[in-house]
Amino acid sequence: MRILSGIQPSGALHLGNYFGMMKPAIELQEQGEALYFIANYHSMTSLLDPALRRRYTLDVALDFLACGLDAQKALLFRQSDVPEVTELAWMLTTLAPMGLLERCTSYKDKIARGLAPYHGLFAYPVLMAADILIYDSNIVPVGRDQKQHVEVTRDLAVKFNETYGQTFILPEPRIRDETATVPGSDGQKMSKSYGNTIEIFGEEKALRKKVMGLVMDSRTPQEPKPDAEKNIAIQLLRLVATPAEAKGYEERLRAGGFGYGDLKKALFEHYWNYFAVARAKRADLAADLPSVNAVLEQSAAKSRALARKVLARARLACGLD
Predict the structure, then answer these.
(1) What is the rounded CA–CA span in Å between residue 150 and residue 129?
(2) Is residue 189 annotated as a catalytic residue, yes or no?
(3) Per-residue b/e over 173-211, b at no fewer than 16 CB within 10 Å?
(4) CB 126 within 8 A of CB 156
(5) Residues 282, 66: contact at Cβ < 8 Å?
(6) Is 73 part of the annotated catalytic residue set?
(7) How far apart are CA 141 and CA 21, in angstroms?
(8) Which residue among 189, 210, 225, 264 is the active-site one?
(9) Which of 72, 76, 106, 218 has its Cβ near the most Cβ atoms within 10 Å?
């Protein structure tokens, strides 16, 4: 089983990234041949500062390795270190129906939030399809909001296969429903574009301030909260505390007499402790960047060897060779 997933270097990685993509991906490295790429081509649709792109790309590598990615079991590489993916993206673009891309809700959501309607944003699913297909990927762990893009990938693969003959494997999305959507500080989905994130790593004082700033309703501590399971802090506690601990806080909130301030303090302590080991490991990795760069380079070489085989197959099928 070949597993493929990517993550954009468009800002500091946060709890939504970790529980929605990184943790499932790290667990899957035990179950098959895992390839994880840092999607720096994709980041060009939202990030225009080259220095920040380089910095965030390195940060993603540090974060992933610190959180448990094993370079002996999985490949971690920069998307741009496998340029064959852009050639395949063009080949798929020539067969991509406009209507298929126009129906992509991610594009419509981003335009509705004020992003400029550039072609790169519109064609994002085609490049994502190339990312997936060029490695003969079987499983693609994604958040629920990206499931449609995997379906587009399957549609484009079928279209290519029907037009030029059997060339691509059809991938399957894998979604963990219990953590598919992580709430941000304002109750919406946690996202860098919403400005509501809680980072995995960062300065303690700033992160504590973010947690203490979680949006709550105006009910007093004494009032019972029969809808406690909907509370943002409770939802986040379920991720970083044991089930019994999270349930205990939920019951105290439901019963009344337990203030939101105390709940947020408990959440921060659990969250801070949850990443304590990873935080120490990240500091060690940051002090040895040559080793981190070596992982990226070696992984890219292995990934590119796979990509070249699939691209050669596609070029032959469609008459470029």
Answers:
(1) 7
(2) yes
(3) bbbbeebbbbbbbeeebbbbeeebbbbbbeeeeebbebb
(4) yes
(5) yes
(6) no
(7) 7
(8) 189
(9) 76
For residues 321 and 313, what is the distance between their CA atoms, to the nearest angstrom?
Answer: 9
Give the chain's radius of gyration (CA, Å). 21
Whole-number Å distance between alpha carbons of 113 and 106: 11
Give the pairing type, strands 172-174 and 2-7.
unpaired
Please list the helix, strand and coil fractions of the chain in percent, rounded to the nearest 5, in that order: 60, 10, 30
Listed residue (238, 234, 239) closest to 252, CA to CA: 234
In this structure, what DSSP letter does residue 170 have? P
Q: Cα 34 to chain center, whole Å?
A: 15
List the chain pLDDT tens, one digit each, 321 residues.
Answer: 999 999 999 999 999 999 988 998 899 999 999 999 999 999 999 899 999 999 999 999 999 999 999 999 999 999 999 999 999 999 999 999 999 998 988 888 888 878 788 999 899 999 999 999 999 999 998 777 778 889 999 999 999 999 999 999 999 988 766 555 789 999 888 988 788 999 999 999 999 999 999 999 999 999 999 999 999 999 999 999 999 999 999 999 999 999 999 999 999 999 999 999 999 999 999 999 999 999 999 999 999 999 999 999 999 999 999
Alpha carbon 296 to its chain's center:
18
Q: Please, how many CA atoms are within 13 Å of residue 42, restricted to the half-sphere of its CB?
A: 22
Q: What pLDDT does residue 178 have?
A: 59
The active-site residue out of 108, 192, 230, 264 is 192
Query: H or E segment at 5?
Result: strand 2-7
Which residue in 23, 73, 108, 110 is the catalytic one?
A: 110
* DSSP SS3 for 84: helix
